[in-house]
Design goal:
Shape of chain B: globular
Largest sheet of chain A: 6 strands, mixed
Number of domains of chain B: 3
Number of helices of chain A: 9
Structural class of chain B: alpha/beta
CATH architecture of the largest domain in chain A: 3-Layer(aba) Sandwich
Radius of gyration of chain B: 20 Å
Oligomer: heterodimer
Number of strands of chain A: 9
CATH class of the largest domain in chain B: Alpha Beta
CATH architecture of the largest domain in chain B: 3-Layer(aba) Sandwich
Distance between the termini of chain A: 47 Å
CATH class of the largest domain in chain A: Alpha Beta
Distance between the termini of chain B: 49 Å
Structural class of chain A: alpha/beta
CATH topology of the largest domain in chain A: Rossmann fold
Shape of chain A: globular
Strand content of chain B: 15-25%
Number of strands of chain B: 10
Order of helices and strands of chain A: EEEHEEHHHEHEHEEHHH
Radius of gyration of chain A: 20 Å
Helix content of chain A: 25-40%
Number of domains of chain A: 3
CATH superfamily of the largest domain in chain A: P-loop containing nucleotide triphosphate hydrolases
């Protein structure tokens, strides 16, 4: 699979080029209004660019995207019907579909009782998990989560990322996650696109991206862990390596200072 | 005087007990954050306080009981920040004029606010084109113009980027000092409680903790039980202490770097 954006012009984007590594977890971050949602919609072909081209060699029904607009569809009907909606629409013959639904809702952390409830009457975090189940049921190759993890509590978020990592590792999926808050996703992503007002500030492996931007003194919302290790490294001229979470960072500091 | 008083709030939904005998008093000029797991009732509480869910409980705001008969009075006291688009006026100016009596002097005042909030360019444009953060800023101007006493914010900061959040909180605190309103903010990330005066943790329909954020950050066991993660600085500080890597009491990043290098 390849995801290539060529000379895209749309809204804030002007002649944007991007070649995204597939089979990885990609974060798209940047301040509010920088174009994250537009970029997600362009990649998923939900909108067409004014100029340029999006090259994506998979069928449209192999793209699963959840955005804030997805909640507008959750007005009536049971949770079970809602989860099965797209799979029926795309006329997938899913063997034992109800069993598969049960399997999936357990994976995302929902209880069986929810299936008979109305999609309108469940909480926001439950809605997110229901949307995820709906997406996973039709087994997409590319999954895009646009501003959806913010409302999840810590346990649900950790659980979701474990699932995402599994989907990448064992099922070769590509997952794109956008957020205004890099600290929420830094630990779990591989690659990173940093956007600002329609421009790509940087794209690449998350460690390379931030370390080089920090060295160049670029004013940016750095992940707190990156900021802290860079400050400490500069002060003592040491290397703490790349750390994803506080526990790893503490080990690295311990090695250097004890 | 108490601005908000909740007496023995008990509420069930869908055969599930959401609140079990909750008592809460909030004074004016207070910034409260409310945390808890998903589905613990945070949004329900906001809906009850704004009169959108009707209960038989005794809840008063500025000594006015919340019930359908007092809806107009309550609407004067309470301002609800909504994540959804809910402006139907033609322009931002019209949207703000709605809350004012026709007064020619007022245009200057509106422009002053819009300028301070970095929204002046939208004066004659439709509120529909505002993004999420800008809509929240417009709401704050409306709350200020209305002189609302209680501002309800249902997890609005979770979508903010860092710099917008700093800008918003600075404006919010500036006008709080002037107008002495109180804020009830629900959160699912303790990072958003750092800048509040009082943190309440709800679990299984009851108030589990109610104290200053700093005090609650020390209760690691409780936080673990409700699965809330400490703000980055505090977690790092605790672990550096645990391994004797720092002395001192400051959770400031630069201070901690200096301490480690000492």
């Amino acid at each position: 699979m390849q995801i290539v954006l060529k000379n895209i012009s749309y809204n804030k984007f002007n002649d944007l080029n991007l070649n995204i590594n597939t089979n990885s977890i990609i974060g798209i971050v940047g301040p509010f209004g920088c174009g994250k949602t537009d970029l997600s919609l362009l990649i998923s072909k939900k909108i067409s660019p004014d100029n340029g081209e999006v090259i994506l060699d998979i069928d449209n029904n192999k793209i699963g995207i959840i955005t804030s607009f997805s909640f507008n569809e959750m007005l009536y009907g049971s949770v079970l019907d809602f989860i099965k909606k797209y799979s029926i629409k795309y006329s997938y013959k899913i063997k034992d579909i109800d069993e598969r639904v049960l399997e999936i809702i357990k994976m995302v952390g929902l209880k069986e009782e929810i299936l008979s409830k109305s999609v309108f009457n469940i909480s926001k975090s439950e809605k997110i998990k229901v949307l995820l189940s709906q997406t996973l049921l039709f087994n997409p190759e590319l999954i895009i989560l646009d501003n959806v993890i913010e409302e999840l509590d810590n346990r649900s978020k950790t659980k979701l990322f474990k699932l995402i990592i599994k989907l990448k590792k064992f099922y070769n999926k590509t997952i794109i996650i956008t957020s205004s808050n890099i600290n929420l996703i830094y630990e779990y992503i591989d690659d990173l696109v940093i956007l600002d007002n329609g421009n790509i500030i940087s794209y690449g492996n998350k460690y390379d991206v931030y370390n080089s931007l920090f060295k160049e003194n670029i004013y940016l919302d750095y992940p707190m862990i990156v900021k802290f290790s860079n400050l400490l490294e500069n002060k003592r001229d040491i290397s703490l390596g790349n750390n994803d979470c506080i526990n790893e960072l503490i080990k690295a500091i311990y090695r250097e200072f004890r | 005087m108490n601005l908000l008083e909740i007496k023995n709030l008990t509420y069930s939904f869908d055969k599930k007990r959401v609140f079990d005998n909750i008592n809460l008093k909030v004074q004016d000029n207070t910034f409260i954050s409310i945390a808890g797991k998903n589905c613990c009732g945070k949004t329900t509480l906001i809906k009850i306080l704004s009169g959108n869910i009707i209960t038989n409980n005794k809840i008063s705001i500025n000594n006015i009981m919340i019930n359908p008969l007092n809806k107009d009075l309550i609407d004067k006291e309470v301002f609800v920040f909504s994540p959804d688009k809910q402006c139907y006026s033609k322009t931002v100016l019209d949207e703000l004029l709605m809350d004012l009596d026709n007064d020619n002097l007022i245009l200057g005042k509106i422009k002053k606010y819009l300028k301070e909030f970095n929204l002046l360019e939208y004066l004659n444009k439709s509120p529909q084109i505002l993004n999420y953060v800008e809509r929240q800023k417009l709401s704050l101007i409306k709350a200020i113009i209305r002189k609302s006493k209680l501002l309800l914010m249902d997890n609005i900061f979770c979508y903010f980027d860092k710099f917008s959040k700093i800008e918003f909180i600075t404006l919010l605190k500036k006008y709080q000092q002037e107008l002495k309103f109180s804020i009830v903010l629900t959160i699912n990330n303790l990072e958003d409680s750092i800048f509040t005066d009082r943190l309440i943790i709800i679990n299984n329909g009851k108030i589990l903790e109610d104290s200053s954020p700093d005090q609650i950050y020390k209760k690691e066991k409780t936080l673990k039980m409700v699965d809330l993660k400490l703000p980055f600085n505090y977690e790092l500080f605790n672990k550096l202490k645990l391994y004797n890597l720092i002395e001192g009491q400051s959770v400031d990043i630069d201070d901690m770097v200096n301490q480690i290098c000492k």
